[in-house]
Write a structure and sequence with these properties.
Elements lengths: L3 E5 L4 H6 L1 H10 L4 E4 L7 H11 L2 E6 L2 H6 L1 H11 L3 E4 L7 H20 L3 E5 L3 H4 L6 H8 L3 E6 H6 L4 H7 L4 E6 L1 E3 L4 E3 L8 H11 L3 E4 L9 H19 L2
Parallel strand pairs: 1-2, 1-10, 2-3, 3-4, 4-5, 5-6, 6-7, 7-10
Antiparallel strand pairs: 8-9
Length: 249
């Protein structure tokens, strides 16, 4: 089955702040099947749900702060359930010592266990620091070794940025990978750019997604060289859709 394509809404954060509903309408117009949330801009769960239903968008996942899950898990999960989300993602963490990382991982696993009991999948989203912060140590590898309920939303841009050989790493961790962040890389200066305009092997990543049966490919773009965010992310969707159609045909 072809994966669905979502936009991580951090990519168009200014448009979301200005008019959340209109921003979501543009996402739908651009051809996306769904969204990954990064905040709700003061809207209630009922409002968010009504926007999604009206526009025909699905929820791929939501990026949520670890603190929100720590401090008010029940309310946070109830909100997510109401908007139709079943995937929770911790978007970022950083610690100076291995001991601090491992304490965080243990606490995250306890939250993930409770979320799983309520019907949610639980993910951690990487940057490059998980591979570089503790010299010679792969925090994500340690994370999946130590836990049963934490899956990986792999950001392929940051995997490349960290210097990891992506394809053997993906193969070694395939049993815990459930989502891909699709983001192309401009080489100089090194920053994200439109899919198909950069140096990363995006088609090969889609081939891996097919092999791993990844249900959602989530577009994220954080820097914009040639187009404003709404135009750039429309190009991202068009380019990624063409790759998916070709590889899944």
């Amino acid at each position: 089955m072809k994966p669905q394509i979502a936009l991580q809404l951090w990519s168009i954060q200014d448009a979301c702040k200005d008019n959340f509903y209109e921003a979501l309408k543009e996402v739908k117009r651009s051809g996306y099947d769904g969204v990954e949330f990064a905040g709700y801009h003061g809207r209630s769960a009922a409002e968010v749900k009504s926007y999604l239903e009206e526009l025909g968008l699905r929820v791929a996942a939501s990026h949520l702060s670890f603190e929100a899950l720590q401090n008010d898990l029940e309310t946070t999960l109830a909100f997510e359930k109401e908007i139709g989300n079943s995937r929770i993602v911790i978007p970022y963490a950083t610690f100076e010592t291995l001991e601090a990382w491992q304490a965080f991982i243990a606490e995250m696993e306890e939250i993930a266990k409770k979320a799983a009991a309520d019907g949610f999948e639980f993910y951690y989203h990487n940057h490059a620091n998980e591979f570089t912060e503790i010299p010679g140590f792969d925090i994500l590898h340690d994370m999946v070794q130590r836990t049963k309920h934490i899956n990986l939303e792999v950001d392929l841009y940051w995997l490349a940025d960290s210097g990891v050989d992506a394809f053997p790493w993906l193969e070694a961790h395939k049993d815990r990978i459930g989502l891909f962040h699709m983001k192309d890389m401009q080489d100089s200066p090194r920053e994200s750019t439109e899919i198909g305009s950069g140096v990363l092997p995006m088609k090969e990543y889609v081939q891996v997604a097919k092999r791993l049966d990844i249900p959602w490919l989530i577009v994220e773009q954080e820097e914009f060289q040639n187009y404003p965010p709404l135009e750039a992310t429309a190009i991202d969707c068009q380019e990624l859709r063409a790759m998916v159609d070709e590889i899944y045909s």
